[in-house]
Amino acid sequence: MASNTGSFKSAQGQKGLIARFDLEMPVTLDDLRRYAVARSLFAPTTLKRALQKLGFVQADPIRAPARAQDLTLRHRAKNYRVGDLERRYAALGIAEDFFVNYGFVTADLQALMHPRTGVSRWSPARKARAQALLEFVRERGSVHPREVDAHFSHGSVTNYWGGSSSATTHLLDAMHYRGLLRVARRDAGVRVYTAHDHAPAPLNAAARRERIDRLVDVVVDKYAPLPALSLSALVRRLRYAVPQWRRELPSALVRARERLAHARVDGGDWYWPADEDPAAADPQSVVRFLAPFDPVVWDRRRFELFWGWAYRFEAYTPASKRKLGYYALPLLWRDRVIGWGNLAVGDGALHADIGYASASAPREPRFKRELEAELERVRTFLRLS
Questions:
Q1: How would residue 149 be classed by pLDDT, with cut points 50, 70 and 90?
Q2: Separation CA 212–CA 201 (nearest Å)
């Protein structure tokens, strides 16, 4: 895709005051692509610092060859091994919660979202069951859903996907979302809960706006640079994080557009943090297999603008209709996603089935060396070597 230069406009604010200035800087789609890759794939650091830098890591239960959260963190945390997040969860100062998707959030981010009100009202009977369950959890300290089910025998309900699930699990999930419970740890993948209290909600409009703007900034910091439509979509998704403030999100989007740096490139507006320069990015010459929900590839609209082909997550697509594979991992080479890989472990060995958007691999010898180096990193990450 041809890239036209765009006028780079930056806004910086302090204590709510916005100072604007225009810089005639040539921002191209190539600049934005390199910038997106380089800023997201920062130099590996400690796991705790990586989580603080990301703010939020999307979770997914599928393991092919590892869960999405592990696949995301292995690029950003030094010496990361599969399962480290779950093993070290209690010591990391993080929580499982819903942000723009379900995943792991820092304590600071979770505090911005709670207490989470504005959720659908419970019937008096359901409210009484929730109160009794909360008292039970407080008495026990932490509980496995099996303990709750054995104590209350709540039966089963129909879940959102049409199947039957334990009413206990359903109620625990609802209480977790509302912030009455938090995930203390996981036991063989099952969430173990403890009671949780949050600080009071901000009482005045200015404090609410400040919180909402900070939530928007977390979104932008994680996924920038963002096309205008993607920025709008992500801000709207904050209705899941803060249903109590969903009516205030449109005005938050207006404020974000005013304070963020932006440029018009190839007929579309793009946004990113005001203190960053897209033209200064320099991605590494390495190969990486990315999680389907990695920040680099999460925005499918941006994906097609940057790389000119459509990536689809097909784990829930019937096998006969899949084009890329059950859990195809986008294959990044330098600042280009050039294909995908389906990785699996069998008989203690890693097996890789790789496809390319252009039907063939790059010819340069360095690519082959870097691909082998990435496969070896995956083996180490999976504890296969």
A1: confident
A2: 12
Read off the pLDDT of residues 210-232 as tens digits, 9 standing for 90 and up.
Answer: 999 999 999 999 999 999 999 99
Closest listed residue to residue 223, CA positions, set 306, 295, 275: 295
- Take residue 374 and report the two structure tokens written for it: 């990435």
Hunting for tokens 């697509």 — which residue is that? 317
Distance CA 370, CA 53 (A): 27
Query: Using CA of residue 255, residue 261, residue 264, residue 269, what is the dihedral sign?
Result: negative
Q: How confident is the model over 52-85, as pLDDT tens digits?
A: 999 999 999 999 999 999 999 999 999 999 999 9
CA distance 296 to 51: 16
More confident residue, 245 or 17: 245
Q: In 3D, which of 341, 340, 272 has the Cα closest to residue 302?
A: 272
Structure tokens at 235: 């801000």
For residue 15, the model assigns a pLDDT of 35
Q: Which domain holds residue 290?
A: 280-381
Residue 156: pLDDT above 80?
no
Q: What is the CATH number of the domain that holds 134?
A: 1.10.10
Which residue, chain included where needed, has tokens 């689809």? 312
Q: Domain ends where: 195, 218, 251?
A: 195
Q: Strands of the chain (E only): list them.
A: 6-14, 17-27, 56-58, 94-98, 102-106, 156-158, 164-166, 181-187, 190-195, 226-227, 261-265, 268-272, 287-289, 329-333, 336-346, 349-356
